[in-house]
């Protein structure tokens, strides 16, 4: 990593731990900063904070005391999940204390160029595809960010010959100053996290931060099938690389005559791609564009697309039990993701859905319920989903307590040849700490049926 001096002897508050806070605190300590960590979880229940304490880092746990801001901090590194309406953050802004997220640190210390991926849906699949294509092309990639590995921790070990492929949330992108990827991808934009951002415009503004520091030497890959992404790119200085599943493009990534193409060059026949779902063609095209811009040869891209069947919890094939195929799409935390999952299958579907109630209705799902023969609902949104199911004419609808009970209930509604699909259309936080835990419970319940 770069041995930067900009944090030496600076008084810095790391607000909120989890993985990113722990990594950021330890890194800043190495860089010579005077670090204080503040986390809401009590110290006795907080092994992460205890570990930082053992490194000689000051730790304050159990609450977020606003008076802590009077201690003269020059910077706050905020956990992305803490909203900007938090009294500590509002107090920091009133005092003129800058607030960043951990990905800013990653950029500052990284010797490796970055490929950053954001958008509403498809981020994880696209990030994984880019990583796999670069890896197959022997470009020595490292994967980081919202996909599970803390970006600044990866940047610590990255060298000039590596490329860091990083998935970025809107929460992370709100806290950047100089962060600049060599290649940026905006997969798509739809309503999401409005409980955090307040409005769609604020959400879009956060996503657009991925390109705010790019120059004419950088690339911004955008969805040409969405006018909004073009609007977001309008103020970018980067070279715009469009992708489209609907239009043939002279420049960029598109579909032509049954092939995926880049700058009019045929790369691979669509029928040979094993990843299911029309929506995944968007992810494939944007990933291919990033790979081609990174110098990856066609044969490496082809090899990945011949074998890549998807990421865990995103339309993940789990098993076949007595002729029923089970798919885990727990990462579908909004209606658009569930629409894309429903559109991926032609045959009868038993849908498992429900979760955190963010105040939205689900009427946009109704046109895509044509192949849904039965629904099993759970969580806070169960009544809302049952209502739209009834409007769509679904006869078999059952409410259960949780995902574990939903699997045998769905099996009872099904017949050989059916798809049993967990695609909740909601976040998991009413019942589960993460969509990963929800998906793992689904997988366990499927294997119990065997």
UniProtKB/TrEMBL annotation:
- Enzyme class of the recorded protein, top EC level: ligase
UniProt keyword annotation of ATP-binding present:
yes
Signal peptide segment = none
Q: Which reaction does it catalyse?
A: UDP-N-acetyl-alpha-D-muramoyl-L-alanine + D-glutamate + ATP = UDP-N-acetyl-alpha-D-muramoyl-L-alanyl-D-glutamate + ADP + phosphate + H(+)
Q: Which UniProt keywords apply?
A: ATP-binding, Cell cycle, Cell division, Cell shape, Cell wall biogenesis/degradation, Cytoplasm, Ligase, Nucleotide-binding, Peptidoglycan synthesis
Q: Which GO terms describe its molecular function?
A: ATP binding; UDP-N-acetylmuramoylalanine-D-glutamate ligase activity
Against InterPro entries, the record matches this protein to:
Mur-like_cat_sf, Mur_ligase_C, Mur_ligase_C_dom_sf, Mur_ligase_cen, MurD
Which residues belong to any copy of the Mur ligase C-terminal domain?
313-426
* Domain Mur ligase central span(s) in chain numbering: 117-291
Binding site residues for ATP: 119-125
Catalytic activity, EC: 6.3.2.9
Its pathway is: Cell wall biogenesis; peptidoglycan biosynthesis
> What biological-process terms (Gene Ontology) are attached?
cell division; cell wall organization; peptidoglycan biosynthetic process; regulation of cell shape
Q: Name one GO cellular component term.
A: cytoplasm
Where is this chain's protein located in or outside the cell? Cytoplasm
Q: One Pfam match, by short name?
A: MurD-like_N
Similarity annotation: Belongs to the MurCDEF family.
* Function field: Cell wall formation. Catalyzes the addition of glutamate to the nucleotide precursor UDP-N-acetylmuramoyl-L-alanine (UMA).
Protein name per the record: UDP-N-acetylmuramoylalanine--D-glutamate ligase
Q: Which organism is it from?
A: Neobacillus rhizophilus
């Amino acid at each position: 990593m770069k041995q930067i001096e900009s944090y030496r002897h600076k008084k810095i508050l790391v607000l909120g731990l989890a993985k990113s806070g722990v990594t950021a605190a330890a890194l800043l300590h190495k860089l010579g900063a005077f670090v204080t960590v503040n986390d809401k979880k009590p110290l006795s229940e907080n092994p992460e904070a205890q570990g930082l304490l053992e490194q000689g880092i000051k730790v304050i746990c159990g609450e977020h005391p606003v008076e802590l801001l009077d201690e003269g901090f020059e910077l706050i590194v905020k956990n992305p999940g803490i909203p900007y309406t938090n009294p500590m953050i509002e107090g920091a802004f009133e005092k003129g204390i800058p607030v960043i997220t951990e990905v800013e640190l990653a950029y500052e210390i990284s010797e490796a160029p970055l490929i950053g991926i954001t958008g509403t849906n498809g981020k994880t699949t696209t990030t994984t595809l880019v990583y796999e294509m670069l890896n197959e092309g022997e470009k020595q990639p490292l994967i980081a960010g919202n996909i599970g590995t803390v970006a600044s921790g990866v940047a610590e070990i990255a060298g000039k010959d590596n490329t860091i492929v990083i998935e970025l949330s809107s929460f992370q992108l709100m806290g950047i100053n100089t962060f600049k990827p060599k290649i940026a991808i905006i997969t798509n934009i739809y309503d999401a996290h409005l409980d955090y951002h307040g409005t769609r415009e604020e959400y879009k503004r956060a996503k657009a931060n991925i390109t705010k520091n790019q120059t004419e030497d950088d690339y911004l890959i955008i969805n040409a099938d969405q006018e909004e992404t073009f609007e977001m790119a309008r103020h970018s200085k980067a070279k715009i690389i469009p992708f489209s599943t609907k239009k043939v493009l002279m420049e960029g990534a598109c579909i032509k005559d049954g092939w995926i193409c880049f700058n009019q060059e045929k790369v691979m026949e669509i029928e040979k791609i094993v990843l299911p779902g029309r929506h995944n063609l968007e992810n494939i095209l944007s990933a291919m564009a990033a790979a081609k811009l990174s110098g990856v040869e066609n044969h490496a891209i082809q090899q990945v697309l011949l074998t890549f069947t998807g990421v865990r919890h995103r339309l993940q094939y789990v098993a076949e039990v007595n002729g029923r195929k089970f798919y885990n799409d727990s990462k579908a935390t909004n209606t658009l993701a569930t629409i894309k999952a429903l559109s991926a299958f032609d045959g009868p579907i038993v849908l498992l859905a429900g979760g955190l109630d963010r105040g939205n209705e689900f009427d946009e799902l109704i046109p895509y319920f044509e192949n849904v023969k039965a629904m099993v609902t759970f969580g806070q949104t169960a009544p809302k989903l049952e209502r739209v199911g009834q409007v769509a004419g679904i006869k078999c609808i059952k409410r259960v307590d949780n995902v574990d009970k939903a699997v045998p209930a769905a099996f009872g509604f099904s017949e050989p040849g059916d798809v049993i699909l967990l695609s909740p259309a909601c976040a998991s936080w009413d019942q589960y700490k993460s969509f990963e835990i929800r998906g793992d419970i689904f997988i366990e319940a499927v294997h119990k049926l065997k």
